[in-house]
Amino acid sequence: MIRIVSYNIHSGRDLFWRKRLRQMAETLHATQADVICLQEVHQNSKFGNQADYLASELQYNMSFSPSIGLGDGAYGNALLTRHPVLHSRSLPLPARREKRTLQEVTLRWKETTILIGNTHCSLFASSRNTQLHLLRAWAQKQGKTSPLLLLGDFNSSAVSLSPPLQDCAVQMGKEQQSTLPSFKRRLDYVFASSHWHVLDYKVVRVSWSDHLPIIAELELSQSPAPEG
User: Fold this and answer.
1) pLDDT digits over 86-133, tens only?
2) Environment class of residue 126 by beta-carbon count within 10 Å: exposed (0-12), middle (13-18) or buried (19+)?
3) CA of residue 207 relative to chain centroid, distance
């Protein structure tokens, strides 16, 4: 079984802009996740090297994907994992205003190579629709050979990537649970390729960010197709 988390950490602050990174670290530690995908993460001196801090507190490997340069560093997405990172890259996604990226990380998990995508889609529907089209194409291609998971803040309550990906909340009948409680909307998702069987999905009710962390548990139900 693999346990995976997605969490938009809102620059490490709550709705009232109070610093909550320490509480976030405690919450993430309690999940005992294999992989944690984070959005709205700072790696700069102005707001702090938040990905480094969380990785240190949890004693996880870390990969950071910059979306926007900021001062002496950047702002973007981060992936934390207790498993070996084999490869990581940042793929730009088209956007009208704020730059967006897909963080693509290849991990070694139980003698299997798996692919994780971590992203934060645009607030603007036109840019977001283009991004979702590209994410679907990416998943269609990459999921042919590797078990794939795609997580993040998709900034829409009506996202479907089926086919090729299944929505873990839908599989568990929990798609009505909001992840942005102030607006009672679900913006955060865990999608999985057909290699995976969804065992569980839940939303963690904490108030450290404007978003809530989501957790999915999955097991491999089929092997990846041979290359060629």
Assistant:
1) 999 999 999 888 899 999 999 999 889 999 999 999 999 999 999 999
2) exposed
3) 19
